[in-house]
């Protein structure tokens, strides 16, 4: 009995051992098969998705080509015109971009779609001839970024040495339009731009709002090497708090533009510049720190200047230059007709009038287009009162 029990026990133990050995071998095989099927299905799904994307890409390309063909038809319908500037209609572009925003349900953000459509319109317009746009250079400035944001990369940018040169090149016809900074959300108005409007015949045709990020750039990329900083006065002011904290006592050297500061900083390891990321790429500089602007909402507003006015777009702003006779309540006489008609005033600023000591001109931005009521009626009333009011321009409100 003892032997039989022992044999039975050994046999049972052997069978259990075999089962234990077989089970681990079976499970990985089943898992591998399931995994292979899942991978095959995933690959099949991914291939289908890519096929769908390829088909959509084809449709997009065909539609862009069709749009470009219709843009050519617009040119033919207008007849033989002198230059590309004669085909450009900022009010029409503004209407198109507003519709893009209105019908956007995602997943792409409004500003992404606006940028895409802007580039399509820019390329279509450039079929006739690229627009020539003057801006404060050299290459790599925020003014250049504003040009591309408003006109797209198919426009031909003309970097110029000063804001005065931008006005001169547009007035002479060497540039179709110009883009000039007029105010910053933290540092206020760029006075030279306003002063040039006192004597210039040019008109404001548009506005651009550009979010500005400032960076500290240098050749070495090391903070401890910096002994002097180049930058436009506005940029130095925008980063004043950061500079006082991290580089107290370091020499600050004003330049005509941030890009000019970057160009000068690339020549020595002990020099740095305050400029945008694009300037770092153009001039081969490294980022030491940034963004370093003191205000998180740091934004610069630019004006587009040209030689002629444009029709209403449906959501416009008008810039006025008012010369007021010296009498009690003179400014009130200008503002009251606007207020009575419910016209919103966005900005007012005075500047000394050229050629008349202690006389001032007022720059006023109001809502509406000068060719449409109620602004048209208010301007007629102000002019009838004897004050000189010049419409610097009515133009579409900046889109994003």
TrEMBL record:
Intracellular or extracellular location(s): Cytoplasm
Entry annotated with the keyword Acetylation: no
Region (Disordered): 1-33
Chorismate mutase domain mapped to chain residues: 40-132
Record field: transmembrane: none
Domain Prephenate dehydratase: 132-307
Top-level taxonomic group: Bacteria
Bias kind Low complexity: ranges: 1-15
Reactions accelerated catalytically: chorismate = prephenate; prephenate + H(+) = 3-phenylpyruvate + CO2 + H2O
Main location: cytoplasm
Record SUPFAM superfamilies: ACT-like, Chorismate mutase II, Periplasmic binding protein-like II
Site entry (Essential for prephenate dehydratase activity), positions: 300
BP GO annotations: chorismate metabolic process; L-phenylalanine biosynthetic process
EC number: 4.2.1.51, 5.4.99.5
Keyword annotations: Amino-acid biosynthesis, Aromatic amino acid biosynthesis, Cytoplasm, Isomerase, Lyase, Multifunctional enzyme, Phenylalanine biosynthesis
UniProt-recorded name of the protein: Bifunctional chorismate mutase/prephenate dehydratase
Taxonomic source organism: Thermomonas fusca
